[in-house]
Write a structure and sequence with these properties.
Elements lengths: L26 H7 L19
Length: 52
Amino acid sequence: MEQKDCENQVVAMAYVPWQNFYKVYEPEKALMVGTIFPELNKPFLGRRMAKR
């Protein structure tokens, strides 16, 4: 693919929902889990979630 083929292409699009700031973790917990917002606390389980 030549570079001129990409001139009119969008690099990326993002969807970012509004974050409601009504409930937050205490600072110590926020540092442990990596976010102050409980809604964003999505622990990484290290495996695919699909059943075998």
